[in-house]
């Protein structure tokens, strides 16, 4: 079999297929074999990455390839006079299947992640032409517009995405009254005066009732940070006592401890697949551990003050750290090398976060600002001022549509993704009586949990901002909260040296 025929076979085509068929087959297969579809299985993800490389090679070789025309026998010469044959107007044999809007959307997301914004803009625009109601494509195109500096286009796309989502909510809510529909239509028939306004608010989901099922003890000082793996099998805590505990969820007891830091540990983070653990603290170092074996793999040095916050990129290539030295640092996970250092904040950095789509990094500081950077290049995209106090915690919703910040003034600010254009928070959540140390979104992005110096945990409805529940039981500051990935349990840590497990009734 010839090399070119092998490429056709890889795309599921017969040799000599048209370029339109080649493009269509490639787009559909690229969607099927996209590595992001297999994030829960590392083996399948590696297979998908290899398969996608092969598909890319086949497409690059075939997209401009012109197969040689087959030899055709000459028509028999007529002995009688006859008019010349009319040219054929039959359509060429090209697949009539419509191109998928999803295929253009996924290709656009790949181009955006790689920094190819002009190509991404074209892909998202094509997806929208195929499906004019594709809210996600409008949302992502708005982000790309902003990256290119086209703020009017960004604002228009984000508003359109919000409009389409609200229309879908209206259609999917049979109990919505005609008055609500009229309000919705009136809101979008006149110019927007505030990006934070909401023309239609769906009925809030019922408030969950939570109760404490376990209290875990084992640390001898403040429990400063907690993390849980996506499969729910690994739960990790860190403490000012300088130790990291890995817990048996069934028995509620630690099964081994990691030691190596020379001072209090302030922050930990688990990699997306749960195999790597990063820890940082008052000794100015970051340590990388293998979770299953407990082996210390590497110590990262470079910060000149304590490491306050850590975050893994979704592709498991980069670790982001924030420090009291005022810098945000990007580290290459495989080599441990420092990629870049950002000096955007004037005072200690207290928190960092990476968006689930792997595009942006956020940092919060004692200088009362939140900075948004591009993960791939470290470019500063936006500086937000809205917390009006030192920003001690940031969380980004799993669907990347919201992020929340908390600080020493007891307020929580909820921001929509359009904040990259508007610079304004969507709403303020008030209810805590002192500093907010931690915030976390539920896996379905519908609830926000917060922990405070006032020793309480509060749950907020993201859509409405309503307070859904207040959990009490800790006798010290609540230092960290996190949901399990099935959303059925909530974990909290405290200055009272305990960890509590909460479940819905």
Folded structure, characterized:
- The protein has a 4-stranded antiparallel β-sheet with strand order 1-28-27-26, with no helix packed on it.
- The relative contact order is 0.08.
- Helices cover 24% and strands 32% of the residues.
- A hairpin with a 5-residue loop joins strand 12 (328-332) and strand 13 (338-342).
- The chain has 9 helices and 28 strands.
- Helix 7 (151-171) packs antiparallel against helix 8.
- With 505 residues, the protein is of the alpha+beta class.
- The protein is globular and about 80 Å long.
- The protein starts with a helix and ends with a strand.
In which range does the helix fraction lie? 10-25%
Give me the number of helical elements: 9
* Poorly predicted sequence stretches spanning 5 or more consecutive residues: 70-98, 174-205
Which strand order spans the largest sheet, edge to edge or round the barrel? Answer: 1-28-27-26
> What characteristic shape results from the CA principal axes?
globular
Strand residue content: 25-35%
Average the pLDDT over all residues and give the rounded result. 82
Global Rg: 27 Å
The N- and C-terminal alpha carbons lie at a distance of 63 Å
Total E-strand runs = 28
């Amino acid at each position: 079999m010839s090399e070119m025929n092998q490429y056709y076979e890889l795309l599921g085509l017969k040799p000599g297929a048209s370029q339109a068929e080649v493009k269509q087959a490639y787009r559909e297969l690229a969607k099927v074999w996209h590595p992001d579809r297999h994030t829960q299985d590392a083996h399948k993800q590696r297979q998908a990455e290899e398969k996608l490389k092969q598909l890319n090679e086949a497409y690059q070789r075939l997209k401009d390839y012109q197969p040689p025309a087959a030899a055709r026998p000459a028509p028999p010469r007529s002995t009688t006079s006859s008019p010349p044959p009319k040219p054929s107007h039959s359509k060429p044999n090209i697949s009539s299947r419509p191109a998928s809007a999803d295929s253009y959307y996924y290709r656009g997301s790949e181009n955006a992640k790689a920094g190819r914004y002009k190509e991404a803009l074209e892909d998202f625009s094509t997806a929208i032409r195929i499906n004019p109601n594709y809210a996600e494509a409008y949302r992502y195109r708005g982000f790309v517009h902003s990256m290119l500096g086209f703020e009017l286009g960004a604002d228009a796309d984000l508003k359109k995405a919000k409009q389409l989502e609200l229309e879908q909510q209206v259609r999917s809510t049979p109990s919505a009254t005609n008055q609500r529909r009229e309000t919705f239509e009136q809101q979008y028939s006149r110019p927007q005066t505030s990006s934070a306004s909401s023309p239609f608010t769906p009925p809030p989901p019922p408030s969950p009732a939570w109760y404490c099922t376990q209290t875990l003890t084992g640390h001898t000082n403040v429990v400063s940070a907690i993390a849980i793996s996506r499969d729910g099998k690994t739960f990790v805590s860190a403490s000012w006592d300088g130790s990291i505990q890995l817990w048996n969820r069934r028995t509620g007891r630690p099964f081994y401890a990691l030691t190596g830091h020379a001072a209090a540990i302030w922050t930990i983070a688990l990699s997306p697949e749960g195999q790597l653990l990063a820890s940082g603290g008052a000794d100015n170092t970051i340590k990388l551990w293998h979770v299953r074996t407990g082996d210390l793999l590497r110590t990262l040095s470079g910060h000149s003050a304590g490491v306050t916050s850590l975050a893994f990129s979704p592709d498991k290539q980069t670790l982001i750290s924030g420090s009291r030295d005022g810098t945000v640092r990007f580290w290459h996970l495989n080599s441990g090398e420092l990629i870049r250092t950002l000096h955007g904040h004037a005072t200690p950095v207290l928190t960092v976060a990476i968006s689930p789509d792997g595009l942006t990094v956020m940092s919060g500081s004692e200088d009362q600002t939140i900075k948004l950077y591009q993960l791939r290049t470290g470019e500063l995209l936006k500086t937000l001022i809205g917390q009006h106090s030192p920003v001690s915690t940031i969380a980004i919703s799993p669907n990347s549509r919201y992020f929340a910040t908390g600080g020493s003034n007891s307020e929580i600010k909820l921001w929509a993704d359009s904040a990259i254009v508007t610079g304004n928070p969507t709403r303020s959540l008030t209810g805590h009586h002192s500093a907010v140390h931690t915030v976390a979104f539920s896996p379905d992005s519908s609830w926000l949990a917060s922990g405070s110096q006032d020793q309480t945990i509060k749950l907020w409805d993201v859509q409405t901002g309503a307070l859904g529940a207040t959990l009490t039981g800790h006798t010290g500051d609540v230092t960290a909260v996190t949901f399990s990935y099935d959303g059925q349990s909530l974990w909290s840590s405290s200055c009272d040296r305990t960890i509590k497990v909460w479940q819905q009734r």
